C-alpha cells in the first residue's frame, strides 16, 4: 500500500499543474503549467492558431494565446491571461536511467487526471531529432503513449517533473522533451514566436566517397553529402554551390552525415560565415556561405 499511496500522491501533486489543451478537433491533448501563465504542450497536437482553449485543474475552460510552435523539438507554448496557478517543480532529465520508474500525468477534459506508470526504456546524451531539433538528453519511455498523453508531464518517484511526453519524435515509442530543452525553447518562443535555425538552402543525400578521392585528398571520412537540390536564391546558391557537388567539410570538420550538418546550423550560426569544403569534378573546392535563417516548415537544410 505504501507504493500505491505514494504513486497516488505524486499524481495528485503533479496533476495540479496539468491541463487539457483544446487545439485540435475531438480529443484534447495535455499540457503543463511550466511557468505562471505559461503552458507547454506537444506542438503536433496544435492544429490551429486561434480559438485554442485550456481546461484548468479547477474545471474552468479559458482562452489561450499561441506564443509559438517549434517542430524540431515538438514543443508548443501557450500564454494564459489572468491565471495564477502554481507551475510544476522541474528536475533534471539527465539523472534518469534505464529501469527508473516514472509516471506520465495527463488531463482529459471529461475525465480529469489520468496516469500511466512505467519505466524509462533508454537514455543517452544530447539527441538531435529527425526534424532537426536538439534535445538536451535522450529519454525513451518503455512503450507508446496512450491517446491524449502527448504533452503530459513525466514525473520521477520524487514528484519532480523531468519534462513533457510526445509521441511525434520516434515511431512506436514515447519520448520525453527534457525540462532543460523546454526552458530553452520556451524562452525563444515567448521572445519571438519561433526558434531560429541555420539554413543553407540545400537538399542532400548521404553518399560513399571513392577510395581514390579519400586517398588523394587525405580525408578522415569516407562519406559525404551529395547536393541534390538548391533553394533558388538561398545562401548556398548565392555562394556558388552547384547541384552535384559533394559536401565533405564544415569549418574544417568532416561532414559525412546529416547530424554533422544539423550540428553546424544551430541558432547561433545564423548570419555567420560557414567555410564549406566540397568535391567538384573529382577535385577539392572551397567556398564561404553566410548562413541564413531557416524558413519555417521548409524541408531544405
Automatic annotation (TrEMBL):
PROSITE patterns from the UniProt entry: PDZ
InterPro entries per the UniProt record, alphabetical: Chloro_Bact_Ser_Proteases, PDZ, PDZ_sf, Peptidase_S1_PA, Peptidase_S1C
PDZ domain residues: 206-282
SMART domains, A to Z: PDZ (SM00228)
Gene Ontology process terms (BP): proteolysis
A single MF term (Gene Ontology): peptidase activity
Key words, A-Z: Hydrolase, Protease
PANTHER family noted in UniProt: PEPTIDASE S12, PROTEASE DO-LIKE 8, CHLOROPLASTIC
Protein name listed in UniProt: S1C family serine protease
The species this protein was found in: Paraburkholderia translucens
Phylogenetic classification of the source organism: Bacteria, Pseudomonadati, Pseudomonadota, Betaproteobacteria, Burkholderiales
